[in-house]
Specification:
The chain is mainly alpha-helical. The chain contains four helices and no strands.
């Protein structure tokens, strides 16, 4: 990696990409309450750390980091909402 790449902001952040991948997987696994929830929390933490690194070191992939944070947040919320809806449906029967 040479200095012009760093100066132009062409260096991509791997944590941003990992956050997006974990976020998408957590949405897919939102049917399994603990699987989606755990991956969503990990993806959210990695996404926030990646976003801080992007700002500090002037790297690329800011949009990917934000997308990872959003997907991870959905991966956290969906299992919780599905559990509450399932509990309410079970209690009304």
């Amino acid at each position: 990696m040479s200095s012009p790449e760093i100066a132009n902001g062409n260096v991509t952040n791997g944590k941003a990409t990992a956050s997006l991948i974990l976020g998408v997987i957590s949405i897919v696994l939102s049917i399994v309450p603990l699987g989606g929830l755990i991956l969503g929390i990990i993806g959210l933490i990695i996404g926030v750390i990646g976003l801080r690194e992007i700002k500090r070191f002037k790297q690329g992939n800011k949009k990917i980091a934000l997308s990872g944070i959003v997907c991870s947040s959905l991966g956290i919320l969906l299992p919780i909402v599905l559990s509450v809806v399932g509990y309410m449906a079970y209690m009304t029967v």
